[in-house]
Amino acid sequence: MKRRQLVLISLGVLVIVSVGGGVYRLWNDRFWPFATGTEESAFLRTTFGMSPPEVRRSLAKSKATLLSYEEYRRADPSPSIEIF
Fold first, then answer.
1. 16 near 30, Cβ under 8 Å?
2. Cβ of 50: how many Cβ atoms within 10 Å?
3. Listed residue (46, 48, 83) closest to 65, CA to CA
4. How confident is the model over 55-64, as pLDDT tens digits?
């Protein structure tokens, strides 16, 4: 009887930890229920309000990359973006 209870408790803890890990991954990567994008299309399959992980995933489908401002400055010595 004690062994059965221990197995059931261990299984319950494993399920709870697995569900928690799955929810954390969805939240951290901004997947489905935690997505931040709006319905308004921006460019290259992205939408306004997307988080950087969402934009990276979306741009990867178009074989494009998301650059930081410093990377963009190195790639283009005379950028068309100005910081005010």
1. no
2. 19
3. 46
4. 788 888 888 8
Amino acid symbol at 66: L
The tokens for 42 are 């921006």
In the chain, which residue ranges form alpha helices assigned H by DSSP? 2-28, 52-61, 69-75
| Torsions phi, psi for 16 (to 5 deg) | -65, -45
- Cα three-residue angle 70-51-42, rounded to 5 degrees: 90
Query: Among residues 57, 23, 20, 19, which one has the least CA distance to residue 37?
Result: 57
Task: Name the β-bridge partners of 47.
Answer: 41
pTM listed for this prediction: 0.48
Give the helix/strand (H/E) hosting 29: none
The pLDDT confidence band at residue 81, using thresholds 50, 70 and 90, is low
